[in-house]
Known about the structure:
This protein is an all-alpha fold. It has 14 helices and no strands. It has one domain (2-292).
Amino acid sequence: MWIVFALSASLINAFYFLCMQNIKINAHIFMVYRGLIVTVILLPILIFYPVKYSPTFYLMSVLQGCIVAYTDYLAFKANQTYGSETVSSILPLSVILVFILWCFINPSTVLTYLENPLKTLCIIASLLGVIIALIKYQKTPLTKKAFIHLTPVLFLSALISILNKLIMSYSGDNPLLCACWRVFILSVIIAFIHFNMYKAKHLPFKALIDAKTLIKGSIFVLLILVLILKSLAMLYTQNPAYVSCITYLAPVWIMLLSYQFNILTFKKNHWQISKKYELLLIASIIVLVVLTH
């Protein structure tokens, strides 16, 4: 079941990134809206569904919100500096970190892997296959400067995926409600942090209530769907690395959408992709789904 949620999240994420790439606003304003709009949308719904989770659930949700606030800010700045093609080519490397970290945090997973070493090797090979294919899928030069800039993002993204999986373990008999509360807490923290950062820099308050900016902020409806679907996928997967791997397919969907609808997001030579990497990507996804579904 995890694969359905993960694929849906990656497809919607592609639409989100396409919209986000054309938004030219201050990074802090972007992050305030990223938190505030999601909060405003979810609050009227969640007010009718109060919950009582373990204090650990709330602590991890707040911690994740703080990490996401910083990570998304770095990623947004990197998108503006290096382009989304470069950023989306580097980020899949975090899948390796997620896989390793989860094995340390949940030793029972390691025992399961050791019971069937051949299957485990095939799973690892399929993850590496997807990562390599995604990196090669875009003919974007990966500069040392961009990689160094995004190194903290790689580690923090891995930690976010781990926390997502741990938070969803408290879902009980209502996973959707748990996912919504996680996204809500996440968004409140993000809005709070970046609003205060915006004020600390003495930036004009008027820019926060600009009508054009408000209209641009409507893209965060897509983000809500992505976050909820990804949370549900995390709940049903054995290792959060699988979900991270699939959600990073967004650049592939972006290319297909750009080509289909003639959106000039990618240069034409980005479509001159080696067939061997296309086959590697398809084969790796099939193997991963079959062995982990």
